[in-house]
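task queued by scheduler; priority normal; single chain, no ligands, no partner chains; default sampling; output format set to structure tokens
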Amino acid sequence: MGKILSIDFGLARIGIAISDENKRMALPLTTVPGGKTIESSVSNVLTQLSDTLQNVEKIVVGLPLNMNGTEGEMALLVRQFGTLLEEKTGIEVAYFDERLTSSAAHKELKGIKTSRKKRTSKVDQIAATMILQSFLDAKQ
């Protein structure tokens, strides 16, 4: 039994979180730079997580739905990213509604006394953690 990895995909940055072994708690892991293409973004993630992926049984990718529940252009990019990631790793990819997680992550970090640059570097990890925790809670 492996862990569950979560990804908050962005064009500039990709936030990553991972579950504990019991799949009850989400923990921030890292932020990976986005690539110029979907392929280069997947490559960046695979390079950064080469050691971690051997212990992962599922990857949850946040799906940025519109407020009315429809999928827009960014959701299509996320699905392309997830499909390629699944092909390259052989690990099942699931999608989970991520509406408002980035804004919630910004609010969460705003109270912390640190530079805006440092907050920006962590916001994607926090968003990935929120996506994963919501996913884990929904499965309980």
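post-processing summary
- The helical segments are 38-48, 73-89, 101-110, 116-139.
- The chain has one domain: 3-139.
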